[in-house]
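Appendix B.2, paired examples.
Example (i):
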Amino acid sequence: MAELTYRPWREGDDRLLLQLWGDAEGAAAAQFRAALGPDAGADAGQAHDGAASPGAGASPGDAASGWSRCVVAEDQGIPVAAGVVYEATVHPQRLWAYVEVARDHRRAGVGTELLRRLREAAASAPGMAGRARLRSKVADGTPGAAFARARGFTVRQRSREVLVRPGALKLPVFGDGTDAGDSSPLVEDLATGSVELSDAVARYYTEVHAWDPPAPISVGRAQQLFLSDAAGAHGAVVLRAPATSAFGAGVSPAKKGRLRAFAVSYAGPATAAADAPSEVLLGHETRLPPEDAADAVRGLLALIAYQHPVRLEVEDSMTALRAAVEPLLAAGLADQMGPDQLTVGD
């Protein structure tokens, strides 16, 4: 193999590289490929186009905020490999990085050289103070995962896509089973624009991502990222605690019970079958004690998956959701879709 040359991204590289690379290793690789493009931010003079992705997991689609650098490797004038590093507004403490090399050029140091050049470029990223920390996302058991491990990246988080079958959990009984005399039902459809819901989602996302702390998420930002039409939010249902009155049990409460858990559903493709599983973000009020949080999440999951299949992204940091899902996986009442997805970082 002749000595390779390295250069910035040029128009048309995507078409040539995709023809050579073939299918992506997984959803994360496909999203990273979409980030390949001309340098952006600082003196590059272009805006980097990043898209938010529904779900609770930190992903390569984590809203890019303007700075990126891309390097392409050429073999006798033909692009054979590329790498990109870019910043994101939701998780600003690390930069996303991705490298892909054509199969017949692997194990020849090309990926290592691309990563070295990306690290060098990343040192000039805004807010990095000359030393950028990187993260990436890989499917377990793939060449990408082996490459990341060999280059010193360690697993920061594991996530799994889980399909819960209809009726996997017994339909719960909330309250006394009748809600008699309670002017506020314990299960409620809630508008995705609700301030109460947006606040709960923002605090939940921040808590389960303490391992890679996000920037502060306001109510408006939470609506944009997780609850807007652009994010694909389709509807929401919440589980509440029984309402109580400050004037005693004999007086009707003036307010609804506090929110315990929430489920936000996302619209699937227009071509999806009517019985296709719903993609759902399922979380809880972060101020609940652990046992109460687990009980609330399990109850709401049983309700939303009673008649229809539900697809969830389950990260190891989501302890209440794991407590509900892992027994179902062990009993064969839920299925993991694809390999573990690993967020790795240096």
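Example (ii):
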Amino acid sequence: MSRSSSTTEGLTDEIRIDHESAIHLAATAARDCALRWGLPGAMPDQAAVLASELAGNLVKHASDGTVYVQPFRLGTGVEILAVDRGPGIRDLDRAMADGYTTTTGSLGAGLGAVRRIAGEFAIRTRVGFGTVVCARLSPPGEPPSARWDTGSVCLPAKGERHCGDACAVAETGDALTGLVVDGLGHGLSAAEAARSALRSFRTAPDRPLVDILTSLHRSLRHTRGAAAGVLRLYPDRAEYCGIGNIRAVVLSDGDVLHRLAGQPGIVGWNVPTPRVRTVPLSSGATVALHSDGVESRWSHSPSPFLLRLPPPLLAAALAHGHRRTRDDATVLTVQAV
């Protein structure tokens, strides 16, 4: 049983669910996140219930399960993700019914209660592969964006309190613009570089991508530097501009269509003239942007199940199944709705 957390803005709280006592850790993490981000009334307790039910299902029925808790990247609210490596749910409709249980004497509310309480709910499962769940809570009148679906996971290296990775998204006119940054090395100095990049990005995320990267370069001159990738998503196309080891992967119709890598260099130290690559997108295409804390080989022979996951579930599945635990790891996934 383990839990990694930090006060770093936007960092994902990770709770490994390998014992019943981890259920309490997951519930506490969800309640704390909801309180920290100002969810009103009974919503922090509702967040705790969501995390408790999802963690309880992992304890009872799954193997290698993890719960991720974090604030929304786009909008106000809390997101709770649960992912495992199997055995999967054979009869999902039956499992979603309130009162269903496979354990004598258990309450059995489980997934049905999660779907009822959550403002947004998504689940995918495959026998032999596992199950991925996303439950979201947002304050009344502040739902997530209706134009874009996003997912993310941002985790420090194993044993580190500070995370040198970071990500952000912003609606910019008729587009969505996202950033993934990977501060060189680990620990506090890498985290300071990542925070400097976030501050620069947020001053004007609607600028041309080359201008954003140029501004990042200036703002990181007095840090150890970073790799950075900036993505601009339109309904019909994606633009990518990156320096260093941030990769972008375009998924559509159950296939990998494009793999985009950054130019050589270090933002804040030595940067070539940034170049923007533009690729067309079909309806429903998803773009995954990730640091090298996620193994790049995931995109070379991915399972059809993985390729068809919606953005929040895809981010959780990539972090859970393809993360290098010795490195900070970030995944940002985006899709036009």
